[in-house]
Structure formats: C-alpha cells, structure tokens
Design brief:
Blueprint lengths: L4 E6 L2 H9 L8 E7 L2 E7 L1 H4 L9 H7 L4 E4 L4 H12 L6 E5 L3 E5 L10 H14 L4 E6 L2 H10 L11 H5 L11 H9 L13 H8 L1 H11 L16 E10 L2 H21 L2 E12 L4 E12 L2 H9 L11 E13 L18 H14 L7 E3 L9 E3 L20 E12 L9 E4 L2 E14 L11 E8 L4 E7 L8 E8 L1
Parallel strand pairs: 2-4
Antiparallel strand pairs: 1-6, 1-7, 2-3, 5-6, 8-11, 9-10, 9-11, 12-13, 14-15, 14-19, 15-16, 16-17, 17-18, 18-19
Helix pairs in contact: 6-10, 9-10, 11-12
Length: 500
C-alpha cells in the first residue's frame, strides 16, 4: 500500500482564532505583534491587512503606516502551539497519525483511511470544508510524501491532489521555498537565478551539496520519496488500538453498544492470537461538535474475553453523552499482559479459588461499578494485635506469607481503632452484664471468654487485653475487651468488632 499524506495550512491561524472569539474584529484590519530585539514586529495578519501588503516579520510601525486605522494586538506567547495541538487532536477522527507542522500547519498520514470517506477527493474536501465551517482559512493538499503535500498546500495553483508517483512533476514549477529550505539557502538560490525547482533539481548532487549543503539534497529526497521523513505524532498510537468511523453520526445507546462490541471483537481477536490480554482499556468517542468523551475500564487479570470486557464497558454507557452524534470510536489497550492458561477455566467442580476466571470477572465488574478503591483483599500478618494481624494485598496474585489463624473466632468487622465503652460486671474476671455504647444500653444475654492477647514486647510496652465475645438480648454479637488488669489505673473497656 502506497503512503499518502495530507498537509493542512492554516493561512491566518491566530487571527482566525481571535476573530472567532471577538466577532467585532471580522471587518477590521488588525495584526498581532511581539517585541523582537527592541522593536515590535508583525507575527500574524488577517486577510484585510495581508491584501494591502503587510507581511509577517515587518515592523509594526511600517504596517501602521501602510494601513490607516490598523488595530494592533499583542500576541499571547505559545498560543499557536496550543491551537495546532487542539486542531490536530480534532483531526484524529480522520487519521490516527497526525503531526504538528509548526507554526501553522498539520501533517496527516492518511494511508488506508481515504476509502472510508469515498475516495481521496471526498476525503480532502470533507476535512477542508469542516475546518472552514469552523472559521479557519485553511488549504489542504494530498500526495505520496509529506514534503510534496506541504509544497502543494502552500504554493500549488492547479489541483490539490497529486496522483501517486507524480510528485516530481508537481514540484518542478514551484519556487525553491516549497522545499522548506532555510532562508540563507533560499537567498543563495535566488542570487543564482534559480527561481523554480526545475532550474536545479537535475543538477549533479555533488555540485548542489558543495554550493548549498546537505539540507537541500535532504529536502529534495524527502519531497520525492527517496528518503524517509519521520513525523512527531501529537498522540502516539498505542500498540493495540482499533478505530471505527461512522458513516452517520451515532446518537443511541444501542448503536454505542454495537460499536463497543465491534471494537472489542477486533481487538480481542488480535490479542488472543498473540497470547495477550487486556489489563486496561480506553474507549474514546469523537463527537460532531469536536468534544471527545472517554470511558475506561480495568481488570484484575489480563483477559481477552469479549463478553466480560463488554459487561465492564456496559456500566459506562450511561455516562457517554452523544450530543449531536458520535462520528468516530477508538478503543485503546494501554496496558496488556500475557494471559495465564488457568484463566480460561471457569468455576471448577472442586470449588471457588482466586485462580477462577469467574471470580476475577466478578471483581472486575464490581470494581468498575463501585470503584476499585471500595474493594479490598487482605492477607494474614504475623502479629498478635488484632488490628495489626492483617495487611492489604497489592493484587489478587499476592500469596500469604503465613496461614490464617482459625483456632479462635474472630469478628467479620474489626474497627480500625477500638472505641471506649462503659460496662457493668459482677466480678473483675467475669464478662460484663451490660455495656453502653454511643448512648445505647446493651444487655448481655450470652458471653464467652476471656481470651488474653499480650502485646508484642519487641515492639512496645503496654497493657494486655482480655477479649470477650458477647451477645445482647436482641441477638447482636460484639467483641469487647478490657485493657490490663482490673486494678490497673489505665484499665478500660472497649468495643473492637462485630460478628455477622
């Protein structure tokens, strides 16, 4: 497949942008300026000023003398870069490979994209028309190389689309500036009478190199396609990405579901063939009005199970606002991992384990619905103190360093900090008869204990705890303890947990 490139040139980028925000400037001659070496020079003009002979780089005082009533506005530093980046991201709907061509252009690698819009003429017309409708004076051209497309967009006068393999003929009648040469080289060429590219393109390369340097030869080779020209993409393409352009803007939830299923099917088929699975996936919806709506999901284990991934995205569909319609969907997998063979086995007859794909998929669904921070897994830790005897697991693959202690019952919910309570008891070592917690009296019907838990002497010094498992007259069970001996001055009673 031959490479094809589109060059877009925004002839009055900054002044068009300013006019869109200040409509009163539309019929006024104005320029943007910036100070350079103790003088103010023109950095941007609108069409009304340009046709009167004002050019960029001219002193602002000269421009004011040429155009009576000229309005001068100071340029905001870095504004052109921001605009080109924003316009480039908007153009991703037409090609995933978009590069900035500073200070006022874009380069699109459109190889394999044009057929989606009915051919090259319809493709280029669609882009240029849409940008002009947004208020930008833009010119576009298409060719086999970025260099030729750039030259035709700025200096071409006949047709904007150069047929494959015809870039050499298209360049012959253009001025040397169409090769994107340095100003010093252009001045030398002009002094020698080389006013068009055909005047020197067939000269011996050794002569051109000796008189004008390697840059001239490099630019010629890049324009003709004899040398590769790298593009610095605005949005580097993820290795695993799928695109789905829409012939008509999508507005319904059903259509969005179909688009997601199609993207996932294509992406997962590729991942499965490579033995890889998705850990994170990002869906981007490019709307007609230029906004991009994004939804992302994550999984605990790498998976290429299309049905499971769709269920995760299905939870996000309600947050996707189509507006006037979505014209492009993309699906990216920024993080992928090798798929473990055991993931393909569903619930086994022996029972559930952390290796079961069904459990992993359930956790993924809950995490994407409730938030990953609301689901936690804990592992046992070799500590005596109950609140320190567990630690959070970093992932579902973490293995415990020790076994869970099952000799004595433990509450299903342990408070991070034990809360002080008031109790009534018969004898010092007997369980309480009742306790008061948050102003509520709980009469104890049954009790078991005490279970003494000592402090770890190698960690700190302090009182031991005597724990009791109690049940009140309403059937609710609690885990209470007394710190230290009854006779200790610092002794007190605490509530530490609840039994299910």
């Amino acid at each position: 497949m031959n490479k094809r490139f589109v060059s877009l040139w925004f002839r009055h980028l900054l002044t068009d942008w300013l006019t869109l925000r200040q409509p009163e400037l539309k019929d006024l001659p104005f320029i943007l300026t910036t100070p350079v070496h103790n003088r103010v020079v023109v950095t941007a003009t609108n069409l009304l000023v340009e046709i009167q002979g004002v050019t960029m780089g001219m002193p602002a005082a000269d421009a004011k003398a040429i155009v009576p009533g000229l309005k001068i506005i100071e340029e905001t530093p870095g504004q052109a870069t921001k605009l080109i980046k924003a316009l480039g991201e908007w153009c991703i709907r037409y090609s995933p490979l978009v590069a900035a061509d500073m200070p006022d252009g874009l380069i699109l690698d459109v190889s394999g994209c044009v057929h989606l819009w009915g051919g090259e003429h319809a493709y280029l017309k669609e882009i240029v028309t849409r940008l002009r409708s947004k208020g930008y004076d833009v010119r576009g051209a298409m060719a086999d190389t970025a260099g030729t497309a750039w030259a035709i967009a700025r200096f071409g006068k006949i047709k904007p689309i150069i047929a494959p393999g015809m870039q050499a003929n298209a360049l012959l009648s253009l001025p040397p500036a169409a090769l994107r040469l340095d100003a010093i080289i252009l001045e030398r060429l002009q002094k020698l009478g080389f006013y068009t590219i055909k005047n020197f393109i067939d000269m011996p390369r050794s002569v051109l190199r000796r008189r004008f340097g390697q840059e001239l030869l490099t630019r010629i080779d890049q324009a003709l396609g004899n040398e590769f020209e790298p593009l610095e993409l605005l949005c580097p393409i993820e290795p695993y990405t799928e695109r789905l352009p829409c012939l008509e803007p999508i507005r319904t939830a059903t259509a969005i579901e179909i688009a997601i299923k199609t993207l996932l099917a294509n992406l997962c088929a590729r991942l499965q063939s490579e033995g890889m699975g998705i850990r994170t996936a990002v869906l981007k919806c490019y709307r007609v009005d230029g906004r991009v709506i994004q939804a992302d999901i994550g999984t605990n284990k790498a998976t290429h199970h299309t049905g499971h991934l769709f269920k995760l995205f299905e939870l996000k569909i309600a947050t996707i606002a189509p507006g006037l319609g979505i014209e492009l969907f993309t699906m990216e997998a920024p993080k992928v991992e090798e798929v473990e063979p055991e993931q393909e086995v569903l619930w086994s007859p022996e029972g559930c384990s952390l290796e079961d794909a069904g459990l992993t998929e359930l956790l993924d669904k809950l995490a994407n619905k409730l938030g990953a921070g609301n689901i936690r897994r804990y592992l046992p830790q070799e500590r005596y103190w109950p609140e320190q005897s567990i630690k959070p697991a970093l992932s579902i693959k973490d293995k415990p360093a020790t076994t869970w202690r099952t000799g004595r019952p433990r509450p299903s919910l342990i408070l991070n900090r034990p809360e002080k309570i008031k109790v009534t008891f018969r004898l010092p070592d007997y369980p309480p008869m009742l306790f008061i917690y948050k102003g509520m009296v709980h009469h104890i019907k049954k009790a078991d204990g005490p279970e003494r838990i000592e402090r770890e002497w190698w960690v700190d010094n302090g009182l031991h705890r005597d724990y009791y498992m109690v049940e009140d007259n309403e059937g609710r069970r609690y885990w209470l303890f007394r710190s230290g001996h009854y006779t200790d001055a610092e002794s007190a009673w605490y509530l530490h947990g609840y039994f299910a």
